[in-house]
Amino acid sequence: MFRRSVSIFILPLILLAGCSLPVQSGSVNDQGEWVPDRSIEIIAPAAAGGGWDTTARMLARTIDEEQLADESFGVVNKPGGGGAVAWSYIHKRNDPHNIFVSSPPLHFVYLNGQSPFGYEDFTPIANLIADYGAFAVREDAKWDTLDELFADMREDPESVTVVGVSSPGSMDHIQFMMFADKAGVDIKKIRYVSDQDGGGMTSVLNGSVDVISTGVMDAVDQARAGKMKILGITAPERLEGDEFLETLPTAKEQGIDAEFIVWRGMFGPPDMTDEQLAYYEQAFQKVSESEAFAEVRDMYGWDEQFMNSEEFQVFLDEQYVELEKILIDLGFIDE
Fold this sequence. Notes:
Blueprint: H1 11-17, E1 27-28, E2 34-35, E3 40-44, H2 51-65, E4 73-77, H3 84-93, E5 98-102, H4 105-111, E6 123-138, H5 146-155, E7 161-164, H6 171-182, E8 191-194, H7 200-205, E9 211-215, H8 216-224, E10 228-233, E11 261-268, H9 274-289, H10 291-300, E12 303-307, H11 309-329
Parallel strand pairs: 3-4, 3-5, 7-8, 7-9
Antiparallel strand pairs: 1-2, 5-11, 6-9, 6-10, 6-11, 6-12
Helix pairs in contact: 1-3
C-alpha cells in the first residue's frame, strides 16, 4: 500500500463540515425492516448543476413521484474539496438518514491525497448508472482509429498532445493513460494538458492540441456535426438506443483490452446496519427498474447498470486497484 499525505488546505474545510446536529438512527419494525424517523437527505458533493447534483435530483424526484419509499428524499448540496467536504460530513455524522451520490472521483481524490476518506470508509449501497469516456480528434486528423493513434504514440509518445478538463492525475487524464498503457505506449512521456475552463474541445478544433479525453456525451455533438471523429469509447460494448451512438467503436473491439466505467452510485455512512442497507438497496433497485428512471437515463444518455451492495463493493475494489497502479506508474503516488 502506498503512503498519502492529505493536502493541508483541504483540512479546515473538512473539519468544519464535521460540525452538525445529533444523529438519529431510526428504528426496526416487527418485520425486521428499518424505519427512518425523518426524511432522507441525498448529499450531492458539489454545487448545483453538475453530474452529482443532477443524478441526486433525478433519483430523489423518481422516488418521491413514483412513491417508492415511505419517507421523502431531498437533495442537499455540499460542495468543496472536489467532494471531500461532503464525505467528511457524512463520515462525521454517521447518520443513516444521510447518504450521498458519487463516482470515480471518490477514488481519485483519496488516492491523490486530497481527502482522508475513500470508498472503504463508507458503505456502498448500490450503483445505478454508467457513463463512458471518449477519445476524439478533429475531423481532418490523420487518425481514423485508436490503433492508428497509439501506433504513432508508441513510436513517439511526445508527438501527440492530449487535453481534458480534469487536472493531472484525475479522470480525463487517467482514463486516457489506462488505454494508452494497454496499447503499449510509454505513458510517462505522454503530453497531457488540463483545461479546467472547458476550452479543450475548442483547442482540438483549432488545432492547438491533437486529442481530447472526455465523456461520450460531451464529444457527441461535435461528432454529429461532422467537426470531430470519435476514435474510441471506454465502454465494454457498443452503446445502444441511438443510431449515431451505435456507430462509435469501443477500444476493446480495436484490440485494446481495457474499459473505464464512469459509474454513479450511492453510498451511506460507515456503520450502517444490515436493515438500513437493505432499506436503501431495495429502494434504489425499484428506482433502477422503474419506467420513470428509464426515461431519465434516456434523457441524459446514461446506461443502466444496477449493482447491489455486494456487487458494487467487488467492482469498486477492482477499479481501485487499476487506478492505483496507473497513478503509481505515473509517479503521482508512492508504492
